[in-house]
Amino acid sequence: MPGDSRRVPGPQDSRSPHWYGKQPPQHQETGTRQDGRADHDLRPVYLHAGVVSQATGSAYIELGQTKVIAAVYGPREIARREEFTMKGRLCCELKFATFSCRRRRQHMQDNQEKDVSLIVLQALEPAVCLDRFPKSQVDVYITVLQDDGSALAAAITCAAAGLADAGVMMYDVVTGCSVRQCGDRQLLDPSGSEESSQEGEGVEDHGMVTVGLLPSLNQVSALVLDGHLPQTTAVQVSRGCLFVCLLVSEPGAGTRVGRTPAATNSSTGCEDVYRRMPRNLPHS
Predict the structure, then answer these.
(1) Using CA atoms, how far apart are residues 67 and 51, in angstroms rounded to an integer?
(2) Domains of the chain: which residue ranges?
(3) 82, 172, 199, 254: which one has the fewest Cβ atoms less than 10 Å from its Cβ?
(4) Best CA proximity match to 248, nearest among 195, 188, 197, 202
(5) Contact 88, 72 (CB under 8 A)
(6) How far is 80 from 216, CA to CA, in rounded Å?
(7) pLDDT of amino acid 23
(8) Cα–Cα distance between 214 and 169 in angstroms, integer?
(9) Is 38-79+87-263 CATH 3.30.230.70?
């Protein structure tokens, strides 16, 4: 098969030199995390809607160094060959940019991206009024520009903000949050190094929980657990995620859906509020 003689025949897969270097400890001697946060502190949050002019609606979110952008197109008519349905269809596709991770990603969508796309779709469907646009579909395209931890939670929040910016009728705007359990420590909004760290894998309580919440309806639309957690620990971590979703969705938190950018450092006082979680949170 003839090839392109002008193209540099580089390797199909490549990794950053930092991949093979010695990783610094995730916890400092002072008890704080590697980036200086306490265990129950959030990273700074930035959310801006209406960033893609060609799309019906769009949104861009930053959770620390994690950057995600979402574009929404539709509602548009489904092809005539499809079976008629009184409910609309929501399609979601998530893709990691080739430069988003420490290991270079492929241009084609892999199995991990397909699984994450399905999770985001399942988190968004309960919030969209599908009966308002029969025989039509809404397409949501999500691109992770940089993955520094909690990419799934950021994708859920960003996609929901894009749907709201597109004017799609929704019951509520979904917000996402992730918590990593490492032994007896709960790391709220984990970074990329904390997600990939092998610290705590020998203990019983080791895993990560991601929750998607409809804050106004007080209902859970997605719950993903990765790792090994006993039932009591999983329930406790899930309830912590639910409370943080409620905290982020409040207007006073500094993140709102709209065309005006808003930035906030949500770590201020978050640990004290996290410890005083209310008892009337929805059960997962």
Answers:
(1) 13
(2) 38-79+87-263
(3) 82
(4) 188
(5) no
(6) 37
(7) 58
(8) 14
(9) yes
**What is the structure's pLDDT at 82?**
67
**Paired tokens of 240:** 């912590």
Q: Which positions ≥6 away from 3 have C-beta within 8 Å? A: 9
Q: What is the signed CA dihedral for 224, 230, 231, 236, rounded to 10 degrees?
A: -70
* Token pair belonging to 160: 């929901």
How many CB atoms are closer than 10 A to CB 82? 11
Sheet architecture: strand order including 206-214: 185-188, 175-182, 206-214, 219-228
DSSP 18: G
pTM, entire model: 0.79
d(CA 52, CA 42): 27
Pairing between β-strand 57-63 and β-strand 175-182 as defined by DSSP bridges = unpaired
Beta strands per DSSP E along the chain: 45-49, 57-63, 66-77, 89-96, 136-146, 175-182, 185-188, 206-214, 219-228, 262-264
CB 63, CB 192: distance < 8 Å: no
Looking up tokens 């861009």 gives 60
Integer Cα distance of 194 and 191 in angstroms: 5
Tokens of 140: 């949501």
pLDDT of amino acid 156? 95
What pLDDT sits at residue 202? 54
